[in-house]
Specification:
six-stranded antiparallel sheet, globular, 192 residues
């Protein structure tokens, strides 16, 4: 049985970033331990001594979204379901990005950034969030573009088919991400 108390509390906060980090202050086999840091809108953060995969599974369970449903729909709709975007609510769609280098064989290096929290880019390898935080990443330009396009596809599908009851409760503040794709395309043209 999964203990969901700390994850249920996260539903009341606005999550901006879910990122892995390697905590060397917790020695596990003399190497350290994979942990997950969740950053919020108010610049606070919470650390879990679990891999990011486990934290994502617990978050999906807290939001009552079956992870198998997410994987199956991503498989049918996207060219690759590996590291597919994660929609938690009609507004909060999390984009995967390469957060760090791999330390060990089964080490998770993918982080997730909330597209609704994204304000822009400082440069090709730095996201700027609406609260002023800067998040550096190692993702390639082509990878970012494909993940953004996959985010649009999943967002639209989940808004129509998974969250239809929520559309009646509020006027969704759908974020226009077209500027992001235009920015990434302009950078790729400059680099060529």
């Amino acid at each position: 049985m999964i203990y969901l108390a700390p994850y249920e509390e996260l539903r009341t906060k606005k999550i901006y970033v879910i990122e892995p980090f390697f905590n060397t202050s917790i020695p596990t086999l003399l190497l350290g331990q994979d942990c997950t840091r969740i950053r919020f809108e108010d610049n606070s953060e919470q650390i879990y001594p679990e891999s990011i995969k486990d934290v994502i599974d617990h978050l999906l369970a807290a939001y009552h979204i079956p992870s198998t449903l997410l994987r199956n729909r991503a498989l049918r709709m996207l060219p690759s379901s590996i590291q597919s975007p994660i929609p938690l609510t009609p507004i909060d769609v999390f984009l995967p990005y390469k957060a760090r280098e791999v330390h060990t064989k089964n080490n998770w290096c993918t982080g997730y950034i909330n597209l609704a929290a994204l304000s822009g880019f400082k440069d090709l390898h730095t996201f700027i969030l609406k609260n002023g935080q800067e998040i550096t990443h190692l993702s390639s330009l082509q990878c970012l573009k494909s993940k953004f396009q996959a985010s649009y596809i999943l967002h639209d599908h989940f808004l129509l088919h998974v969250f239809p009851h929520m559309r009646l409760d509020f006027e969704p503040n759908i974020v226009d991400y077209s500027y992001t794709l235009e920015y990434l395309t302009s950078i790729s043209k400059k680099n060529n």
